[in-house]
Every structure is written in C-alpha cells, then in structure tokens.
TrEMBL record:
The gene is lepA. Its EC number is 3.6.5.n1. One of its GO terms (molecular function) is translation elongation factor activity. It is an enzyme of class 3 (hydrolase). The lineage of its organism: Bacteria, Bacillati, Actinomycetota, Actinomycetes, Micrococcales. This is Elongation factor 4. Belongs to the TRAFAC class translation factor GTPase superfamily. Classic translation factor GTPase family. LepA subfamily.
Length: 617
C-alpha cells in the first residue's frame, strides 16, 4: 500500500482513541534509531527495498557520526484486534547536549519506551531521560534491547530496570532492534498500555509548535502536535505569540515522507506549510490557532534553553558576513537552542558571539553552517558565562573574555553543574581523582547493584565541557557514563589571561581560566604562536599576561626578507612584479600592531583539536 493510500483510511482527522503518541528514550548508542528502523519496516511505512540504516537520521552529519541530533516524528499504522491505530513515534537524540530536543519531544507524547542495552545496563542518560519522562507524566514501557548479543544479560538488567521504575522484572520487554525479535510485541504493548491523547475536539484549535525547518522550495515547514480542535487546509491560522495570520496551504503527516491530509485533529502530530519565508514567523513553543474561531489562551510553551558555552564565529572571508547572518537565522529555526549576536574582534573582524548547549552542539552548528550554507568559519576559544561583581556592586555578565572588566573586582562567579557518573565500582578511585583535579566536590554515592555505582558530584561547568568526558572514558576503559544539569553558580578564583604580540593585546586569544591554570594556558598559547607566526623584520615578543603581570614569554627572532635580493642589476618590471606579489601575500595577513599574522595562524591557534577542546561523543 502506498503512503497516500494508507492515510486515505482516515480522510479527516483520526479519532483520538485510535492515536498513540510515544517516544523512545535511551542512553546514547543503546539502539533507539535501530529500533525505530525496525518499527518503520514492520508497520510497512518503509518497504524493505527503500530501507536504509538509521532511516530517520536525515542529516548527513547524523549518519556519518551515527548519532541522532534532531528529533523526528513519524506516523505508523498498526493493526490490533481488527482496529487500525495511528502510532506517532518521535525519535530523540541521546547526547546530553541535546536534552532540550528530548524534553520538547516528551511534551508531545503520552508515553515513552525506555530502552536499555541488555549488555550494558542502566547508564547516566537512561536516568536523566527517565526523570524527564516522569516529570512529563508519561506512561513508561521498560524495554531491554540487543538481546541477540552474546554478552546480553537481560535477566540481570531487567531486575535493575524494574527496581528503578518500580515494576515487576517480568514486565520489562525484551527485544532486538537488529533482528526484529520482540518488536511486534512491543508495538502491541504500545497500543495497549499507552493512554490515547485527550483534548476537546469542539474547542477552538490549539496546536503546539515543537519544531520547524526551512525548505528552499516550500518555505517554513512547521511541526505541530494538536491539543484541542482541528486544523484544516485552506483555513486561516494565527500564531498566538506574534498574532501573525497565514493561510494553511498544506497540512499533513510524516509517514515517512510528508503526506498531505485533509486535516489534523486532537492528539495528532503533523506538519503545516503556509508559504511563509520569514523564519521568525514560526517560533518553537508557540501555539497555532484558527483565525475564524481563535483560542483565548495559549498553551504552556517550553522553557527557553539556556546556552552554556559561548564562542565567536567569524567568516574566514570577511565578505561572507551577511551570508553568515542569514545562515544563522535559518539554522536557528531548526535549532531553537542556538543564540547569537553580532560582535567584532580587532583580530578577526565582524562575526557573531554564539551560545551553545555544549561543545558537541558547537561543533555540529559549525559543521552545519559550513556544509549546508557553504561558509568557511573560524571559531574562537569556547568559554562559559561568568558573573563579575565589582566593588561598587555593579554586576557584569561576561560571555566573551574581552568583556572581562578592568578595575576593582569583588568576586567572579562561574556556573556549576550537578553531575551524575555511573560506572563499575572498581573505578571509584580513578573517578574521584579525576573529579578532584577538576575542582569537583562529591555530593553522594549509591550502589545500583553490587558492582555498579552512581556517583554525584558538583563540578564547575568550565571544567566539564572540555575534555572531562574523554578523560573519564579513558580512565574507566570506556565503562563510565556521564550526565549533568546546571546547578547555579559559585565564587571562584578566576583570572583573565591576555596574549600580547609586541605589547599589543590580541583579543581572540584571551581566556578566562582558574588562577592555577593561568600559567599553563599562557605557556601553551605563547609556544603555539611562536610556531605559527612567521618571522618578521624585527623581533616579536609573545607574552602572556594576567593584568599587568607577565606570566610567560617567547620570542620570534627577526629576519629581513628582501624579495629583491636575487634581482641584481635587473630590469625594473621584474622588480615591480615581485613587489606586487609580496603585496598580494600581505592581503591575507592581519596586522596586530606592526606584526603581520597570517589568517592561518589564527585558525591553527584556535583550532579545537589542539587546545584540548575536543567535543565528546
Ligand atoms: N547486536 C545488536 N546491535 C544493535 C542492536 N540495536 C542497535 N545495535 C547497534 O548499536 C549501535 C547503536 O545503535 P543506534 O540505533 O545508532 O543507537 P542510538 O541509541 O539511536 O544512538 P543515538 O541516536 O546516537 O542516541 C549501532 O552500532 C547498532 O548497529 C541490537 O538489537 N543488537
């Protein structure tokens, strides 16, 4: 049956009692996307011929990295006892940076399949996602996955999982997303155990926007979940926060490609197209209603995500600045957690200071900007947000080291997180050592089973966002898992380290670091720049300074590069040509005071691979 024929089963909106909205939540790599693939196949939404692994991971980056970044909603028919139900599945990302996507998806569902790898057991994000689902009052179906693996211990982990959510171990379903074993039984339980959506079909329409994307041909495509009433093609709709009115050109469901329908009713999940090109018209979290019979009260909306890590993004070619602005506007539509505002840097020119949920988020945004919009970008050293209180009680919020105030500072506060680490108990010592080195303090520790512990720490965000996860993995041979959430701020001994070239400060290289690490940063940066900046016609000192105090120094020795040296005697045109060529080369240089710094030196000095700012996967 073609997708179109299937929706013809319900030419108008599907009655809510035949709808089940669910998501799959799990720790990263526990097999959500693979299970989703099997469901698409079993329900006939994707035929065997068109099937490819990770079907719903539509972005190239997702497929290459094998991770889910965006949530995806898809509708699948499933027959039970002679009745055909519409199952709306929302596939969600597992990485801690994308928890925001997960929480939005959860708000669109009545139930969650909690998936646990039967060879690994419960991990840190299993817990984090479970708590999110519980906060949203979702019905939870516990499922052990990968039972085909020889190392699987479904009985052991069923007991762990059952203990966690307070059910009988017998009630944990056992499946293999790879072989398909147990997946039909799971689909049946989704219909039986999850409650159908409730809403008032006769009330004015209210639909929640949970995602939107920009399509070059069709304009903005908005994904909604209908709470009350109906939305129908050709009627006029209103976005409640902006009061903007549009005509609904097309409305439909994703199954697995967009399929137009004759309307969406209570509990349904689908998409809207109004032909609008202005990306700001469709705000995630906004409520859509009918213009003819508008609702008076908007739905609750989502909590705005708070960016945790900031970095400057600059086009390598300064003339790409307007393109970068447009690209950010479009990307923002598909990534509500991204924030940005224009900034200028003496060294890098015009760019944007952008806020991200974490380093992986930064990496993904940068990669999407480069790939989807063809931009070449440079990103500056990432940093967290600091609150600086001056002695006269004024408070300065610092998202960029160059904003760090001069003058009399009373205290500097940095963000901290509440981290949960799950690991086999033999690694307790190694984990404690790592956390202490990162200025952490232990809040508590519990045994989940006799050989697995949960350790809870308070840690500075700045210590955790960079290489913490890599170090944790290497010290625990890959067995530990980590999750964290913001937990306020603390006073810390922080200083700003500046890098000076011949006495001139280079803003792009300044960093705010803990006092004990200032020296390390200064030596590292000065050493790196010495390698990267070519010799000039005079000696160039590179210094690292905290305030007026120099903490590290390197020297680039002088050289006199006389391009005319070889042109003895010689004719004047040849000389001119050589001088022209030298001028060309200079265009790609940035001047810092009298020092010429090649663009490549900035890129190399700030490249994340070298400064230890590698994102965790
Ligand atoms: N043996 C076996 N391997 C599986 C099974 N399900 C998934 N895998 C493998 O586990 C790995 C992770 O699977 P994914 O489906 O990509 O995991 P995910 O949870 O969607 O990952 P994220 O989207 O990044 O959160 C892949 O290598 C899969 O091939 C299973 O039932 N059995």
């Amino acid at each position: 049956m073609s997708p179109r024929a299937r929706t013809a089963l319900h030419p108008h909106a599907t009655p809510p009692e035949l709808i089940r909205n669910f998501c799959i939540i799990a720790h990263i790599d526990h097999g959500k996307s693979t299970l989703a693939d099997r469901m698409l196949q079993l329900t006939g939404v994707v035929d065997d011929r068109s099937m490819r692994a990770q079907y719903l991971d539509r972005m190239d980056i997702e497929r290459e990295r094998g991770i889910t970044i965006k949530s995806q909603a898809v509708r699948m028919p499933w027959e039970l006892d002679g009745t055909t139900y519409a199952l709306n599945m929302i596939d969600t990302p597992g990485h801690v940076d994308f928890t925001y996507e997960v929480s939005r998806s959860l708000a669109a569902c009545e139930g969650a399949v909690l998936l646990v790898d039967a060879a690994q057991g419960i991990e840190a994000q299993t817990l984090a996602n479970l708590y999110l689902a519980m906060e949203n009052d979702l019905t939870i179906i516990p499922v052990l996955n990968k039972i085909d693996l020889p190392a699987a211990q479904p009985e052991k982990y069923a007991a762990e999982l059952a203990g966690l959510i307070g059910v009988d171990p017998q009630d944990c379903l056992k499946v293999s997303g790879k072989t398909g074993e147990g997946v039909e039984a799971l689909l049946e339980q989704i219909v039986r155990q999850l409650p159908p959506p409730v809403g008032d079909p006769d009330a004015p329409a209210r639909a929640m926007i949970f995602d939107s994307v920009y399509d070059t041909y069709r304009g903005v495509v908005t994904y909604v979940r209908v709470i009350d009433g109906n939305l129908n093609p050709r009627e006029r709709i209103v976005m409640m926060s902006t009061k903007a009115q549009h005509e609904l050109l097309e409305i439909g469901v994703i199954s697995p490609e967009p399929v137009p329908s004759k309307g969406l009713g209570v509990g349904e999940v689908g998409y809207l197209i109004t032909g609008v090109k202005d990306v700001r018209q469709s705000r995630v979290g906004d409520t859509v209603t009918n213009a003819g019979k508008p609702a008076t009260k908007a739905l609750g909306g989502y909590r705005d995500p708070k960016p945790m890590v900031f970095s400057g993004l600059y086009p390598i070619d300064g003339s790409d600045y307007p393109d970068l602005r447009e690209a950010l506007d479009k990307l923002k539509l598909n990534d509500a957690a991204l924030v940005y505002e224009p900034e200028t840097s003496a060294a890098l020119g015009f760019g944007f200071r952008c806020g991200f949920l974490g380093l992986l988020h930064l990496e993904i945004v940068r990669e999407r900007l480069e790939r989807e919009f063809g931009l070449d970008l440079i990103s500056t050293q990432p940093n967290v947000v600091y609150q600086v209180t001056m002695e006269d009680d004024t408070v300065v919020t610092v998202t960029n080291p160059s904003e760090f105030p001069h003058g009399k500072i009373a205290e500097v506060r940095e963000p901290i997180v509440r981290a949960t680490i799950l690991a086999p108990s033999e690694f307790i010592g190694a984990i404690m050592e790592l956390c202490q080195g990162k200025r952490g303090s232990l809040r508590g520790m519990d045994y989940l089973s006799e050989d697995r512990v949960e350790m809870r720490y308070t840690l500075p965000l700045a210590e955790i966002v960079f290489d913490f996860f890599d170090q944790l993995k290497s010290r625990t041979r890959g067995y530990a898992s980590l999750d964290y959430e913001p937990d306020g701020e603390q006073v810390a001994d922080l200083v700003k380290v500046d890098i000076l070239l011949q006495g001139e400060q280079v803003d792009a290289f300044s960093a705010i670091v803990h006092k004990d690490k200032a020296y390390g940063y200064g030596v590292m940066m000065a050493g790196k720049l010495k390698e990267l900046i070519p010799r000039q016609q005079f000696e160039v000192p590179i210094q690292a300074a905290v305030g007026a105090r120099i903490i590290a120094r390197e020297n680039i020795r002088a050289i006199r590069k006389d391009v005319l040296a070889k042109c003895y005697g010689g004719d004047i045109t040849r000389k001119r040509k050589l001088l022209e060529k030298q001028k060309e080369g200079k265009k790609r240089m940035k001047m810092v005071g009298r020092v010429e710094v090649p663009q490549e030196a900035f890129i190399a000095a700030l490249s994340s691979d070298d400064n230890g700012a590698k994102a965790k996967k």
